[in-house]
Amino acid sequence: MTNILGAILAGGQARRFGSDKAHARVDGWRLIDLVHDRLSVQCDAIVVCGRVEQGFTCIPDLPEPGLGPLGGLNAALAHAAASGHSHVLSCGVDVPNLPPDLAGTLAGEGAGIVQSQPVVGLWPVTLAGVLADYLAGGGRALYGFADRVEARRIAFDPPLLNVNRPEDLP
């Protein structure tokens, strides 16, 4: 699969973590650098959504900050549509064990998400308007949007990590 925009969703406030998760370290790597590295082997370009991070292409959440991961995904889909990408491969900044074949595993008809981590997904750009309408109608739940677009849910073994607290770091 080609023509994929990687989107690192990094606009959260990390209240449970207690500090900036993007800069937490795993094996000497900052989480944001580790996720970027894992996405770079499967994406044509990468953006960081929801924050300004030096050294990265960054875009603000749409239509505004504070909408959770859907604001970042909405921004990524709009950016992908404007830049000619066919899909967005989204991932939270707090998922350090992304497999190198994530895009291929999630590929198929429509959207595909990780069963236990719906923020990790492969979204066709054709869903940009659907997500914008969902948000305009008050939708805020990622699972709700995934259900609306009938996203396939794919299980991973071992499961993908979700770093919410310092003790969750591998």
TrEMBL record:
Domain MobA-like NTP transferase: from-to ranges: 6-111
Record InterPro entries: MobA-like_NTP_Trfase (IPR025877), Molybde_CF_guanTrfase (IPR013482), Nucleotide-diphossugar_trans (IPR029044)
GO molecular function: nucleotidyltransferase activity
Superkingdom classification of source: Bacteria
A Pfam family recorded for this sequence: NTP_transf_3
Signal peptide: none
Keywords (A to Z) from UniProt: Cytoplasm, GTP-binding, Magnesium, Metal-binding, Molybdenum cofactor biosynthesis, Nucleotide-binding, Nucleotidyltransferase, Transferase
Keyword GTP-binding carried by entry: yes
Protein name: Molybdenum cofactor guanylyltransferase
